[in-house]
Amino acid sequence: MMNDLDTTRQLVQRGQSSASAEMERSIASAQSSACAHAFTRTMFEEARHHAAQPAVARLPLAGLAVSVKDLFDIEGQPTPAGSVALAHAPVARQDAPAVTRLRTAGAVLIGRSNMVEFAFSGVGTNPHFGTPAAWDGRFGALPGPALVPGGSSSGAAISVATGAAFIGLGSDTGGSLRIPAALNGLVGFKSTARLVPTAGMVPLSPTLDTVGALTRSVRDAVLAHEVLAARRVRHNPVPLSGWRLAVPGALFLESLDSHVAHVFARTLQTLRRAGAHITEMALPETTDVLALQTGGGLTAAESYAWHRQLLSQYGPQYDPRVRSRIERGASMLAADYLDLLRTRQHWMERMQRQLANVDALLSPTVPIVAPSIASVAPARHQDAAQDAERDAEFFRTNALLLRNTSVVNLLDGCALSLPCHQQGEWPVGLMLWHTALHDDTVLHIGLRVEEALARQ
């Protein structure tokens, strides 16, 4: 099992390793076959130069490698957002604030990570730059055919899972950090959206977009959040038995495949043996999420507003599956959009009242294990019926992967996905979540849950 960021930076700061030596290991991983299609652009020589600076080892991130999702601005580089439609866009004049904060803390950028075009899918495929295959960040290679990595922060996840980066800077609009975390045995933290600036990134839905990170441990997630949000997480010594935890029913437990259902049930048993008090909560309000997503919801409406001019010029260059989802927003009237915002606000208030007496909720991050890339890849040079069948499977898979995670975005909440599977099993994520500004509580419970699962 690879060291996490916290362990590695201690080795560097004690002189037992060096930022340069660790960078060479990261570059070797980035060049390996396991990392194929994980990057759209690498920055190896620049990374070597920065890692060699003596002062960098004393900073919080100790000169260690970080990947940057392709939708964030990096000074002097274009920001393609996983698309060829932005190939002629001017280069960025400055770093996005999130990138600046990582650099200031001592991160060294190793490359731009691949992603779903314009971040509009939870599956992780990209027809322009290839699709990286899932890789278990705790236990290594997955057996059998190549599996989807989850999206839209697909390359960010693979860069961390394979050892090419210690932090994968990404975004989360409906689950784009937590879905790839679950499918690759990683930790993904979606903070309350307002805590990290979204400036300097290609937006998907400004109402829902959140900037965050993929890491190898919860303590790394805490550190990454502190850097990105420019705040300190308030430490809390309360043990696992001191928190009020609940498992929501309704939407979250529907259509679980047998492996996810088994691992989730075993995880709850492990946590109860460790002293956790876990109750069941019906939470029927979650089924109302479907009404908030009618016609593509906020994501379709807001993405179309940003893309409509670009579509008129470069529409044929878009991934057809992405383009079709964006264009759903063209039919939403301004009155419908305002109604949707009001409906969401009322739903959020109802959910906040329901969740006032619990500290965090536990649910499977996604209800299925990763399917094969081949099962959802576009059918090329085949007849229309086969193409339609493959597209239907893609959209069915996409809806399942986004189902649980998107509730938290619509709630303007915070959520942590951490691995709960054992060695030799398909990766499964456990999601801890709550409403806005419960970030510190969710992270602290995550630390205690991670400890309990490590002892099983």
TrEMBL record:
Residues 36-443 form the Amidase domain. Residues 1-25 are annotated as: Disordered. Gene3D superfamilies: Amidase signature (AS) domain. It comes from the Bacteria. Residues 8-20 have a biased composition (Polar residues). InterPro entries: Amidase, Amidase_dom, AS_sf. NCBIfam families: PRK07056.1 (NF005460). This is Amidase. It comes from Giesbergeria sinuosa.
